[in-house]
Design brief:
This protein is α+β, with helices and mostly antiparallel strands. The protein is 16% helix and 33% strand.
């Protein structure tokens, strides 16, 4: 069993006549760099019965602070459908309590009170300073309401990570608020019992199933991720890389209800311990060749002094599955990311586990041709083995899409034979590890000098291990 970080917030389902619909959970605050202090947010949802809530935060060498949460009213009518069945309307209050000025490297306890009476408590860890060892998890393609996601979440709980990076496709099939209610919260933040999100912040990447349906006139509760997750507003702002909303009254109401989450959730970065993370929406609508976006990416990566630099996207640039293979526009970013010192490119979308050899890629042109295949020249580091040779020459591309979605079980050997039969310049044997027959997630443990990557399956077995080190200064 976990420590107090696991046993957080055992709320009753009904609070003084008011239904608690989503148990309070931890999200990142506004800080993106390792400043002198951290910030966090606590969010929860209730039925639309007003309540007087407050949240107390306390910790060692941190005097107790009481925060009054902000409340936002969420109203969603039924989606327009040709089906004879009419969906019910949805009505919620969303509460957000923000606390700033938290010391780094600390454990903070929080107590949620209604009308002065404590109704639950929990704890979280603040951001680690640059010299600390950290442990975190990356996993994509999480919640379709089936048992596999429960097994993966249970194993993540045992790992006790400082945070989780959710690599897109958070909720199937279309990322609606109603689908979070049906498929997501029951696993990652159940109303009672052990909960990941009650103590562990989720940093999210937007996936196609999260954002492809963004017509708010047709589907009022679309784009649920923007309602439920937070990110620092340090990205390039709204642009042709952002989820398109239009200018309808529904879009205006959406912007007001989600606040800074739109467009911040699409492109942002943050530091934790010795690592820097750049989160990038690379879905179909995103114009990755936009000069302003490219300038922001270069500035963000080159200005970071973190020992390790991760770039997190949804659709992988390099993988060896037949599924989604033609979605290769992110390959055009490879030279920029290499030049800016990135170490790993992490993705989901493909429902299995894959790790590439360290590679360098030069595209033949700066545009994605018809069909989506971006050809170019490859340079592979065949010396790196992650055991005795641990300093990679090139970027390692990771696919961690086994969080709960239906697996893509094709075999590497058959896939390789197919790719090799196609025109040259698009695929070489760059996949060092390929596990497609089980659900899994990836856990990282890193210091400023050493990064250990382990892939863990839904039964707790280790299916991959890879050590990376930095050269001595």
């Amino acid at each position: 069993m976990r420590s107090a970080f696991l046993l957080a917030l055992l709320f009753p389902a009904v609070l003084s006549g008011q239904s608690l619909l989503v148990r309070p959970y931890v999200q990142p605050g506004s800080n993106s760099t390792l400043q002198a202090a951290d910030s966090k947010r606590i969010l929860w949802l209730t039925a639309q019965v007003p309540g007087e809530f407050s949240v107390e935060f306390s910790g060692e060498n941190f005097p107790t602070r009481t925060v009054t949460p902000e409340r936002v009213k969420l109203d969603f009518g039924p989606a327009k459908s040709k089906s004879a069945e009419v969906e019910p309307e949805q009505h919620y209050f969303k509460y957000t309590a923000t606390v700033d000025g938290l010391p780094l490297d600390h454990s903070i306890t929080y107590r949620v009170k209604q009308s002065g009476k404590e109704i639950g408590s929990g704890a979280f860890k603040t951001t680690a300073s640059a010299g600390k060892t950290i442990r975190f998890v990356m996993v994509g393609d999480l919640a379709n309401g089936l048992a596999n996601q429960d097994a993966v979440a249970a194993q993540i709980l045992k790992i006790d990570p400082a945070f989780v990076v959710a690599l897109g496709d958070i909720v199937y099939p279309t990322g609606r608020v109603s689908q979070y209610q049906d498929h997501f919260w029951r696993t990652y933040n159940p109303i009672s019992g052990p909960s990941l999100m009650a103590s562990i912040p989720f940093h999210v990447v937007l996936g196609n199933h999260d954002v492809d349906i963004h017509n708010l006139l047709e589907t009022p509760d679309a784009l649920g991720a923007y309602h439920f997750f937070q990110a620092p507003a340090n990205g390039p702002g709204e642009g042709p890389w952002s989820t398109p909303l239009g200018t309808s009254p529904a879009a205006t109401a959406f912007r007001q209800s989600v606040g800074s989450s739109y467009p911040s959730l699409g492109v942002y970065s943050f530091d934790h311990g010795p690592a820097h993370f750049l989160i990038l929406d690379n879905n179909g609508y995103s114009k990755l060749d936009s000069p302003k976006l490219l300038e922001w990416i270069e500035r963000d990566l080159t200005s970071s002094r973190a020992a390790w630099k991760f770039v997190c996207i949804h659709a992988p640039a390099f993988h060896s599955s037949r599924e989604h293979y033609s979605e290769q526009k992110s390959r055009l970013l490879a030279p920029l990311l290499e030049r800016c010192g990135a170490d790993l490119i992490c993705s989901g979308h493909v429902h299995n586990y894959q790790r590439s050899a360290p590679l360098r890629f030069t595209p033949d042109s700066g545009k994605v041709p018809p069909g989506g295949l971006v050809n170019g020249s490859f340079k592979l580091d065949t010396t790196f083995d992650g055991v005795t040779h641990t300093q990679p020459d090139g970027l390692i591309h990771l696919v961690a899409g086994g969080g709960g979605g239906t697996l893509y079980k094709s075999e590497l050997e058959k896939n390789a034979a197919y790719f090799q039969s196609q025109k040259p310049g698009n695929w070489v044997p760059y996949t060092a590890k390929f596990v497609a027959d089980r659900h899994s997630f990836t856990v990282f443990e890193l210091t400023p000098e050493r990064l250990l990557l382990r892939a863990i399956d839904a039964k707790g077995g280790e299916i991959d291990r890879c050590l990376m080190t930095k050269p001595a200064p």
